[in-house]
Design brief:
By secondary structure, the protein is α+β, with helices and mostly antiparallel strands. Helices cover 41% and strands 22% of the residues.
Length: 93
């Protein structure tokens, strides 16, 4: 159920407007039409920075700053996470 092409550093992700997000016992839960899934700590960090304006690269830079990791590694991790969220149908790029 992909909602766009491949995720790249220059991609600008946005959350689909029909997606429901709830915080349950401290965990973010995302509900897409046919399934729901919990977001782990890093994925939740990325999710909260998806605003339809920031690029994947910028979100990766913020991830690197927050977790004190290499920027290139953080950007690659961000691409991987967002590709999964696109596949689930929760995010568009």
């Amino acid at each position: 159920m992909s909602t766009a092409g491949p995720v790249t550093r220059a991609s600008v992700p946005s959350v689909r407007p029909d997606i429901r997000v709830r915080k349950i016992r401290g965990v973010l839960v995302v509900a897409v039409p046919e399934q729901a899934f919990e977001l782990g700590e890093t994925t939740a960090f990325i999710w909260k920075r998806i605003d339809g304006a920031r690029s994947v690269e910028r979100i990766g830079e913020l991830l690197a700053e927050e977790y004190e990791i290499d920027v290139d590694t953080a950007v690659e991790d961000t691409i991987e996470v967002l590709a999964e969220l696109v596949e689930y149908g929760a995010v568009r790029v």
